[in-house]
Amino acid sequence: MGTCIAAIQCAITAILLVSTTVSSDDKSPIPADPSSLNKWFQDNVRPLANRKGTIDPALKAAEAKPRTIKVRKDGSGEFKTLKDAINSIPTGNKERVIVHIGPGEYIEKLKIERGKPFVTFLGSPSNMPTLSFDGTARKYGTVYSATLEAEADYFVAANIIIKNSAPRPKGQLKGEQAVALRISGDKSAFYNCRFIGFQDTLCDDKGRHLFKDCYIEGTVDYIFGSGKSLYLGTELHVIGDEKGNFITAHARNNEAENTGFSFVHCKVDGTGTKRAYLGRAWQQRPRVVFSYTTMSSVVNPEGWSNNFHPERDHTALFGEYKCKGEGANPAARAKASKQLTPGQVAPFISLGFIEGSKWLLHPPN
């Protein structure tokens, strides 16, 4: 009897240990009710202390010794410019470095090189700093025109405005595209950030990313690239253009490429009426899905464009699931569009889409 009781106690202890070291849950579906989104996120992205043995070892080690450096325009921090702060981080960095950015506009062209992982840009939610530059494709090339190029893995930004201040393209000159952010590092997250620009605002270049509670505005292809990203509770604001608007341009050419954009509980709004396409088939096999998203009248009734390539009607995955609003009416949708079933949408509405259990953390306060 004593042996049996001891065995039961061991089993209970094992269960409790498992329950306190649970990772982020990659399988739990995002709830349909938008009011439940933040609780779902809290429940499924657990604190680091509760995720022993489940999170990337390099990330766990980096988070064990975080350090903070302050950037202040008035000189009250360690640095007055972001460029100097970035330069102070050694190549091969192995510790979380939180760059705490004071209010104001920082007119700088910035790059976090691949050898500098574990960097966080942190601003105040009540007085968000603005990173601004006027780079254009004509001068730098499209993807290199970005105000901020984040090439390193495990980059995090919270409460930051990233802006390309170049003038609105008039269509009269080549190279008027102007990127605000290019994110090409893997396992990167953005919380409560705003991305400001016109054409090609956000280059979601490559890697797995999370955008939560963000705002992204633009005219044409203002979310583009080959990334695999989950956008949660994010506003996609269309700046109306008489020639038409395209929100996404996902670059994917074959089925072997495990990439895509998934928008869940987002909002599509802006100026203009029925001119904005949710996406265009820039490459042969784009993969873009909108779920539980509210779409205003800015959305063109067709929803999607094959980019004048009719054959891409059969190769693109342009999916929608339980979206609402005037712009979500499926009646006149393009051939490439699909109203997904629960089974079809399942891979796109969980943290598993970006394998968040291995790396996703809440932003620092």
Automatic annotation (TrEMBL):
Is the Signal keyword given for this protein? yes
| Subcellular location field | Secreted, Cell wall
Share an example GO biological-process annotation for this protein: pectin catabolic process
Chief location category: secreted
First and last residue of the signal peptide: 1-24
Name a GO molecular-function annotation.
pectinesterase activity
Protein name listed in UniProt:
Pectinesterase
Q: Which organism is it from?
A: Populus trichocarpa
